[in-house]
Amino acid sequence: MAVFCFAILMTAAEQSYRTMQQHTITFARNVFLPLTTVCRNRCGYCCFRTPVQDGCLMVPGDVERTLRQGATLGCTEALFTFGERPELEPGFNEHLGKTGFGRFLDYVYAMCQKSIETGILPHTNAGILTYDEMSVLREVNASMGIMLETTADVPAHRNSPGKRPEVRLAMMEDAGRLKIPFTTGLLLGIGETPADREESLLAIRDLHKRYGHIQEIIIQNFCGKPGTPMANHPGPGTDEICETIRLARQILPREIAIQIPPNLTDAKDLIPCGVDDLGGVSPLTIDYVNPEHPWPAIDSLRDLIGDAVLKERLCIYPRFIEKGWFDPGLKPLITRLAHSIG
Fold first, then answer.
1. At 41, which CATH number?
2. 123: Cβ–Cβ under 8 A, 6 or more apart, which residues?
3. Is residue 8 part of a domain?
4. Hey, which of 114, 163, 187, 321 has its CA 20 to 30 A from 200?
5. What are phi and psi for residue 193, nearest 5 degrees?
6. pLDDT tens-digit series, residues 296-329
7. Average pLDDT score, the chain
């Protein structure tokens, strides 16, 4: 009997240990708001950008309606993504003027305020911004981001001044100086080499060593889009993506989460490679950058992660909440939402 009881105790202890060691995979419940599809860049793989035309700007009524629906569905993150420097494209400011705003940055700020009023934390991915512009948007954003994509000079970026690596790295450094919790990442398969990927990861690591502001890095695979110059360009395979994830885990500090988009690749095969996060997944809006790839249902995410534990998070990671790396005006909402997701 004693031997039997001891065996039961050992089994319970082993199970407890295994539970403590169990890997956690996080995600954020979000709404995707493409404020404009107008962009000064001409990337060879992009289907998001459109010319200036009617419908190129998401009007305030549509923004507010989406935010209200997202709040009803329990969304905690408003992902504001749009083309870079749209005001430089002829005719855009005329469309913007119809909304009552003279500057696009003011429009972005106002929509972020609407998000906060609705009870959803803004995260803005705006392309290249100056130090002063980020300082302004920091007041109404819990986190921000920009994809580094690659430190290599690739043909896909030939007509995209905002994709120059030195320009992107300079903005990421400014974000560190401003103590903005920041998301960046690599885009695999756009003409870079494995050595370029390593160089990109080392550049991100070095910035984080100086400022400690990188909360997650996205390892995203290129997907060819019909009608683009790179429509028939092959994307990276699962093994290649896995190798890059493992390389990222070796190079980056453990506190930086490694994220993959679960709608663009076979997440089930990549989770064991060192993935920590599935990014923003929306129960309401599509992925406007990759519209041909629908989000998995949130209820199905557990099926993708195997034995790992699935945990919802905010767009600002817990360690930055503890440090107080946010505008004081955001504290009530951050505190409430952090309690609501446990």
1. 3.20.20.70
2. 30, 77, 78, 79, 80, 141, 142, 143, 144, 145, 183, 280, 315
3. no
4. 321
5. -105, 165
6. 999 999 999 989 999 999 999 999 999 999 999 9
7. 93
